[in-house]
Design goal:
Order of helices and strands: EHHHHHEEHHHEE
Strand order of the largest sheet: 1-5-4
Number of strands: 5
Helix content: 40-55%
Shape: globular
Strand content: 5-15%
Distance between the termini: 16 Å
């Protein structure tokens, strides 16, 4: 199954309701995020280490980039950058939620637009539709009603929703998967923005750090691995293990192709023609395949 990002604009009335609910639910949301990554050591183990291991696999021995950096130098810089993020993660998270509580009413229009772009496509909302998180969780927990919420651009290649975990674990799995997709999707959306900014700088002939030129692909690789690892920790053994990109050598690539043997749940980026605007647009999607 292939799902494409939902794009919803928030009305003024919805923005007011969103502002009230956001303030009321901020503590719960903050605690949910803290449950996922509870300490700097947790951040290092769940985010930094998997990212480094994945990057190491995709840089061949003896590789030297255009800036003259060796494989080890690139990995060391990446490790330093990710490690620095861990020390700021909890500070930024706490400050961010404090900002929501203090300023959301005054800035609801601006924040509503940001929420519509970076959060709603993955969470969904009553009265609008389901986001990619609930859709994916429903598909992998055997919820056949989920098909009612598919959009015109979504596509079921083959198969039906299927419960891939033990029934008694379905609730925990659903919650964990939704949280992971929301987190990963938001991170990837930010990387897409940064990638476009980098392209603009390069087009102007300006210097860009070599690590930023592949930020979108690197982010897709890291986040897809995190999602598939999560699913593997819950899945029953009758299903083939979930692997990022199926059997493709490039994780997160648009060339993975449905029909590969391995199970996978991956974000991907693809060029889609928008008939209403009569132009090509870069779209983020989520592909799910379950193999026995």
């Amino acid at each position: 199954m292939r799902l494409f990002l939902r794009e919803w604009a928030m009305s003024g009335r919805l923005g007011k309701r969103w502002a009230k609910q956001t303030i009321n639910h901020a503590p719960k949301t903050y605690n949910q995020l803290m449950d996922q990554v509870m300490s700097e050591n947790d951040f290092y183990q769940k985010i930094v280490q998997p990212g480094l291991k994945t990057a190491e696999k995709f840089i061949r021995s003896g590789y030297v980039n255009a800036a003259g950096l060796s494989k080890q130098t690139i990995l060391n810089r990446r490790k330093k950058r990710l490690s620095e993020l861990s020390s700021q993660y909890f500070i930024n998270l706490k400050e961010g939620f404090q900002t929501i509580k203090n300023n959301v009413k005054n800035g609801q229009s601006k924040y509503a637009k940001s929420t519509a772009k970076y959060l709603l496509p993955f969470t969904g909302r009553r009265g609008i539709g389901k986001g990619l998180g609930p859709l994916a969780a429903g598909w992998l927990t055997g919820d056949t009603k989920i098909k009612r919420f598919l959009a015109r651009t979504d596509k079921i290649i083959k198969g039906e929703p299927v419960l891939i975990t033990a029934p008694e674990k379905a609730g925990r799995f659903r919650k964990a998967l939704i949280n992971q997709i929301i987190h990963s999707g938001t991170v990837i959306m930010r990387a897409m923005d940064m990638s476009e900014y980098v392209k603009e700088l390069l087009h102007k002939g300006l210097h860009v750090d070599s690590e930023l030129t592949n930020i979108l692909e690197d982010t897709l690789i890291d986040e897809n691995k995190a999602i598939n690892n999560l699913v593997n920790s819950y899945q029953q053994k009758i299903f083939k293990p979930f692997k990022p990109g199926g059997n493709s050598p490039r994780l997160g690539s648009r060339h993975r192709g449905v029909g590969t043997v391995a199970s996978h749940i991956d974000f991907f980026v693809e060029e889609i023609f928008n008939e209403s605007k009569w132009q090509w647009e870069t779209k983020l999607g989520l592909e799910i395949q379950v193999a026995r």
